[in-house]
Amino acid sequence: MKFKVLALLASLVTTISCSNHKDDYDAPGNFEADEVIVSAEQNGVLLSFSINEGDRVNEGVTVGQIDVTIPVLQQEQAQATIKALHNKTGSSAEQNDLVKKQLFVLEAQLAQQIREKARVENLVKADAATRKQLDDITAQVDQLQKQIAVTQQQLKVNASNTSIQNKSILSEKAPLEKTVAQYQELVKRGQVVNPVTGIVLTKYVLKGEMATIGKPLYKIANIDTLTLRAYVTGDNLSQIKTGQQVSVRIDQGKKEYKSYSGTIYWISAKSEFTPKTIQTKDERANLVYAIKVRVKNDGFLKIGMYGEVIWNQPK
To answer: Domain check: are 81 and 155 in the same one?
Structure first.
């Protein structure tokens, strides 16, 4: 009988202890960070790729190089055409040959860009490419079409007046200079430049693999400061505000905690059902409001780690 009484008392102590633990924090959640997926901006073989998962990389550092042999050759071709413009004036036949060659090159480039545009359109529909990438391709197609129209007009002018043709050839200098600038931009996009300072979380490709526009290369995040996305019930909203300093804690062993100072910087305006990762089935059925707490990371905080927010003093 005495043993049964002791067992019952132990059970009550355990229940009370669990209940107290449940009530000694105000909002549970998980740590997250703003993750950036860096994608290729050019098509070609990845000639170099010097990062590894776990590396800390500063913003603006070149971490890879995609093969840009073709745009480099196209740029040199356009530059050579500009130099040859003055030497090709005077003879209508010679000028026509030059213009026809230029027209052939432009039409080939246009066909290639039209195919690339269709591919990027499909990637945009699949959320695998950005609208800016599509806009850039469209601008290149428009520019090539304008150059083709100008070149075709030159051939018509050559048939009637050599002097007009000479003037027309020289007028091609400005569009060709724009073409050189476009190819220079394509060459520049062959460099993989890290956009933010942070830690490499995932590496998706290796040196020697084929990169295509929009293909993810690696994922990086700045984890110097993490965000604890936590959830509060409606009756607690009146106790918090943006800019409020709160205490954040994580588990440290079975019964101890490690505490941090945090700042609430966002409170959702809409309620939602509690995520499945939070507590019991009954609690998940409740409507809650998400909040975001910014916490300085000392190296022990990890993305996805569970944390608790306290703004009321535990009883």
So the answer is: yes
Average pLDDT, the chain: 82
**The amino acid at 203:** K
- The amino acid at 268: S
Query: What's the mean pLDDT in 221-238?
Result: 92
Same domain, 180 and 242: no
Cα–Cα distance measured from residue 204 to residue 128, given in angstroms and rounded to the nearest whole number = 14
Domain assignment of residue 136, given as a range: 69-188
Whole-structure pTM value: 0.60
CB 36 within 8 A of CB 59: no
Q: Are residues 177 and 251 in the same domain?
A: no
User: How confident is the model over 218-240, as a mean pLDDT?
Assistant: 93
